[in-house]
Specification:
Elements: E1 29-37, H1 40-50, E2 53-56, E3 62-65, E4 74-78, E5 83-91, H2 94-104, E6 110-111, E7 119-124, E8 130-135, E9 175-183, H3 186-197, E10 200-206, E11 212-218, E12 226-227, E13 231-235, E14 240-247, H4 251-263, E15 267-275, E16 281-286, E17 292-297, E18 301-302, E19 309-312, E20 319-321, H5 327-330, H6 336-349, H7 354-364
Parallel strand pairs: 1-4, 5-8, 9-13, 10-19, 14-17
Antiparallel strand pairs: 1-5, 2-3, 3-4, 6-7, 7-8, 9-14, 10-11, 11-13, 12-18, 15-16, 15-20, 16-17
Length: 371
């Protein structure tokens, strides 16, 4: 049993979130995200203003790419109703796809309806979300960003006769970094991504009764360091795509990217600040269909040897510095479909009920900070 400590407010031991002893596969990274909705023109304006490169898909969809990773990072398809279709994860060999299919009972690897038609396997998570796992021959490594800009700091002042003037342009988006999925079926969802895809928990935030509420999961690349989190499972009363985050080179790219989005008529969701868990400098913006998208820089990297750490869930634990968290940032996006889902869940149709609402409210009032 993992010694995970106890919640500082209640003294109740944290319930551990274990790694999978023998996952079906160990994915290499998050590759791309698929959305559908009625706001294709807004999506085009937002994602290009955000810093992604646009092209028209063969099927009429909008495709947006970063500099590294899969050839396409975001796909947006025109539809009457806004929805999150699902994520695609990448593996490094086709043999891993064959292993995944054999161990899950899924159909054998076949070309997916994605740009380039990479071979892949299609799964369904406990929320009904389509989860694709693919092998991308055209996977691109991170580009060089050049030497870091000189900084005048204390008695070390190397920048002489050289004013700092960041380019006025959308952020340079290097890659898709992570996404957060909210779910009322927390335990089943977390186990799916841990046991099926081999993700491992970096940090876990828990409710006062010791149950996990947020698990920051990273890829298991052995000795090779990887992001503090690639996929996050959050306990929420409805299934919700919470946000996706994209890496940019530095603070100036975060700040100038936000400046350009603001001038483009988009609304900031929260930022700029620095997270505690993951340590990223962050800036969140509302994009198409009211969904949140984040620029981030300077995040933590861990190898597989770093053990899981446990913390009390709290608003105070979301950032080291930055503006107060707006209430709109914390609320799930609730249309009529989500309201009906919420009512069904609270009436006993899921593992998230009125007790969880109370515990979440208590947790978010906590002043506890992660170590």
């Amino acid at each position: 049993m993992i010694d995970s400590g106890a919640h500082p407010d209640s003294g109740v031991p944290y319930i551990p979130v274990a790694r999978a002893a023998d996952p079906h596969v160990k994915v290499h990274d998050l590759a791309l995200l698929e959305f559908a909705g009625p706001d294709a023109e807004v999506a085009k304006r937002f994602f290009t203003g955000f810093g992604l490169q646009h092209r028209q898909g063969d099927d009429g969809s909008l495709e947006f790419s970063a500099e590294a990773g899969a050839p396409v990072a975001v796909i947006y398809r025109q539809a009457a109703k806004a929805s999150f279709v699902g994520p695609t994860f990448a593996v490094t060999t086709v043999a891993e796809l064959e292993q995944l299919a054999a161990r899950t009972g899924a159909a054998a690897p076949a070309p997916l309806q994605l740009p380039g038609h990479p071979p892949g396997v299609i799964l369904t998570d406990p929320n009904g979300v389509s989860v694709k796992v693919a092998h991308f021959e055209a996977w691109r490594t991170l580009p060089a960003c050049g030497e870091a800009a000189l900084v005048n700091r204390g008695d070390d002042k190397p920048r002489i006769n050289a004013p700092r003037r960041p380019q006025r342009s959308p952020s340079r988006v290097l890659r898709l970094g992570h996404m957060v999925l909210g779910t009322p079926e927390w335990e089943a969802t977390a186990r799916f991504y841990i046991e099926t895809l081999g993700l491992i928990p970096s940090d876990v935030q828990a409710l006062p009764d010791g149950r996990p509420a947020v698990a920051f999961l990273r890829c298991d690349r052995g000795d090779e360091p990887t992001d503090h989190h690639t996929f996050v499972v959050a306990r929420l009363p409805v299934m919700d795509f919470e946000h996706a985050a994209f890496e940019v080179p530095d603070l100036d790219e975060v700040g100038m990217g936000g400046q350009m989005l603001r001038e483009g008529g988009f609304r900031r969701a929260w930022g700029i600040g620095r997270h505690i868990l993951g340590s990223q400098i962050f800036d969140y913006w509302f994009g198409p269909d009211g969904r949140k998208f984040e620029h981030f820089a300077d995040g933590d990297l861990f190898d597989a040897a770093r053990p899981t750490r446990y913390h009390a869930m709290s608003v105070a634990g979301l950032s080291q510095w930055g503006p107060p968290v707006p209430s709109a940032f914390l609320r799930p996006k609730l249309g009529w479909h989500e309201v009906l889902q919420l009512l069904r869940n609270l009436l006993g149709k899921s593992s998230f009920g009125f007790r969880e609402i109370k515990l979440m409210a208590n947790a978010m009032r906590s002043a506890s900070l992660p170590d």
